[in-house]
Amino acid sequence: MVETMKIILLEYCTRITDEDTFLQVRLFLEKLEQHRPFTANGVFEVDLKVATSIFTNILTYVLVALQFEISDN
């Protein structure tokens, strides 16, 4: 996905006539090149799939805890 975005932005760069916009796109491309993955203390990489899984598990835990709280009342 990052490679596709870089290709699209490089093609866009050739059509830019405004100097400020050109510099902003070039800066963004440089940031894409320096992309470092987000990790959990270097143990594993946290991507969208892992973040979704963590959020789903937390939500399930909260819903089950709420059901027990409601049934106690």
UniProtKB/TrEMBL annotation:
Topology versus the membrane: Multi-pass membrane protein
Biological process per Gene Ontology, one example term: sensory perception of taste
GO cellular component terms given for this protein: plasma membrane
InterPro entries: 7TM_chemorcpt
Subcellular location, principal: membrane
A Pfam family reported for this protein in Swiss-Prot or TrEMBL: 7tm_7
Keywords: Cell membrane, Membrane, Transmembrane, Transmembrane helix
Location in or out of the cell: Cell membrane
Protein name per Swiss-Prot or TrEMBL: Gustatory receptor
